[in-house]
Amino acid sequence: MATDNDSARVNVDKHKAYIKALDKQTETFEYYATEHLRMSGVYWGVTSMALLNAQEEMDREDVVSWVLSCYHEDCGGFGGNVHHDPHLLYTLSAVQILALYD
C-alpha cells in the first residue's frame, strides 16, 4: 500500500485522454479484432468518464445515436456493433448506456 499521497493520486486528465482516444484508433488491429465487443467497450468508457465526473466530455448525441443504430426492431435486442446480431450482453450494455444518458 502506498504511503506517499502523490503516488496514490489518480491522474484524472490522463485517464480521460486515454478513454477518449480509444475511439480514434480506428486503424489498429485491436480496433477491428474487438469490433464485436464495441457496445460493451462504449459502456465501460462512458461509465469510466461518469466516475471521473467527465461524462459531459463524451458526445451524448453521437453515443446515443450509435447505440440506437445497433437496435434490432424485430426482437428488441441490441447487437455488439452495427449490423451484428443481437445478444443479451450487448442489450444490457445498451440499456445501461441509455440509462446513463437519460
Question: Summarize this, please?
Answer:
This protein is mainly α. It is built from 6 helices and 2 strands, in the order H-H-H-H-H-E-E-H. The chain has helices at 5-8, 12-21, 29-33, 38-51, 60-69, 88-100; strands spanning 71-72, 77-78.
Description:
- The protein is globular and about 55 Å long.
- By secondary structure, it is mainly alpha-helical.
- It has six helices and two strands; from the N terminus they run αααααββα.
- A hairpin with a 4-residue loop joins strand 1 and strand 2 (77-78).
- The chain is 55% helix and 4% strand.
- The protein has a two-stranded antiparallel ribbon with strand order 1-2.
Question: Which SSEs are present, and which pair or pack?
Answer:
Layout (H helix, E strand, L loop, with lengths): L4 H4 L3 H10 L7 H5 L4 H14 L8 H10 L1 E2 L4 E2 L9 H13 L2
Antiparallel strand pairs: 1-2
Helix pairs in contact: 4-6
Describe the structure using short key phrases:
mainly alpha
Share of helical residues: 40-55%
Contiguous runs where pLDDT drops below 50 for at least 5 residues:
none
N-to-C SSE string, H for helix and E for strand: HHHHHEEH
Radius of gyration, in Å, reads 16 Å
The number of helical segments is: 6
**Amount of beta strand:** under 5%
- Major beta sheet, specifics? 2 strands, antiparallel
Q: What is the 3D shape?
A: globular
Total strands: the figure is: 2
Structural class: mainly alpha
Give the neighbour order of strands across the main sheet: 1-2
Overall pLDDT score: 92
- Regarding quaternary structure, how should these chains be classified? single chain
Distance between the termini: 38 Å
